[in-house]
Amino acid sequence: MIEKLILKKTMNKKIITATLLISDGPVEHSYFIDLLGVTYEELINLLKDINSEIRNIELGFEIKYDKIKADIKTISEISTYLNAVKPASILKGLSTPALETLAIIAYEQPVTKLKISEIRGVESESSIKTLEARGLIESGGQLELPGNPILYITTNLFLEKIDLTSLDDLPSIGEYFNSPNEEE
After folding, report:
1. What HEC string does 86-139 produce?
2. Range of the domain at 114
3. 111-112, strands of its sheet edge to edge
4. Whether the Cβ atoms of residue 105 and residue 82 lie closer than 8 Å to each other
5. How many domains are there within the chain?
6. pTM above the 0.85 mark?
7. Cis peptide preceding 87, ω within 30 of 0
8. What spatial distance separates the first Cα and last Cα of the chain, rounded to whole Å?
9. Per-residue pLDDT tens for 23-67?
10. Which of 82, 107, 128 delimits the end of a domain?
11. Residues 50 and 66 in one domain
12. Is the Cβ–Cβ distance between 97 and 122 less than 8 Å?
């Protein structure tokens, strides 16, 4: 009986780590609870056990988790060594127009689709849909104007994936964009 419990716990840890490794973002605890047939408390204990084992063998990552979700993150002391090697995975595969759109939303938020298209000089509907589907942007409300245009903002996932704690940490893009003649 004890051997079966140990085997199940070991298998559950393998499933959790493999799932987090292949996912492109956080995985909600409810997914693991349903998949593994464990309680919330048991899942948290499994995550703690995995992190303890990772620390013992001194790997360059850990599992970050909160009350809702878990994700694999590089440990902070090595993240600077990785910047030149690999971009944040959530950004992998994004087209140049999608990256332009994301940058505009990050720096101008909250911002409407029309404003994004004006800045880019082309329609941005497709890029906005892609960014929403990846969870990098979301609706931050609507303007109280005819048509009630949606105001787009970046998400916490965006900040997590580019390793920032707040939008204030975004690099300055220079005085060009802070011109008093802009948008008048």
Report:
1. CCCHHHCCCCHHHHHHHHHHHHHCCEEHHHHHHHHCCCCHHHHHHHHHCCCEEE
2. 89-178
3. 111-112, 150-154, 137-142
4. no
5. 2
6. no
7. no
8. 74
9. 867 899 999 999 999 999 999 999 999 999 999 999 989 999 999
10. 82
11. yes
12. yes
